[in-house]
Specification:
By secondary structure, the chain is an alpha/beta fold. 39% of the residues lie in helices and 25% in strands. A hairpin with a 2-residue loop joins strand 2 and strand 3. Helix 3 crosses helix 5. It is globular.
Amino acid sequence: MNVALIFAGGRGVRMQAGSVPKQFLEIYGRPVIVHTLEAFQNHPEIDAILVVILDEFRDELLRLIDRYELDKVRWIVPGGATGQESRYKGLRVLADACDPDSIVFIHDGVRPLVDDALISANLETVRAHGTAVTCTKTNETVVRVEGDSIEEVIPREPLWTAQAPQTFRLGDAVGVYERAIAEGMTDTIDTCFLFRHYGIPVRMVPGPHTNIKVTTSSDFYVARTFFTLLEDEKAFGAKASEG
């Protein structure tokens, strides 16, 4: 079984969008979370979806699931105090419902530009190697700073940015989270970190720079621009086929 665990537990504090959480802001008439869910809903090899979300937004999510006919969403799980706790709560529900050899895609609800090709690449990689983490090449110079002084310029050739989806065998993912909790770790950054912390090899999947996470207002406008380009491609492609 191939399952997407969509983490949408944030309140959008950095977005400064009033009372609307970033996952519910609309781009091309659809909330960001709907764009994200539709990417997994429409992929032929995704069997089911679990969404982790704060309880106060559960009813709104249910309304969207019904409106957009997102029938692969089978579980809605309340979020925890930290991202790690929220992801673990989702994984525990999946562990009770799915075979441990199932493949789980852990993905940000506010990363709406994930596409079929990237989902398929993750699936192929985890089948072959047991792990798959989407990464994009670092284009900027990275420096180490102390105070206001640049202490080191780090060669960027080997540097990539870890993104999502991050894809694993379900049993392996549950195992690293339970080990972390037993050792007192409660607020780690992501699943990739836990796998590497415990010395488990992680396979990289090259991803596009368009696969951005909508965290700030500028991210939102960049995402909207990319969606505009996609809409234009669809429109011109349709005209070309007609002509």
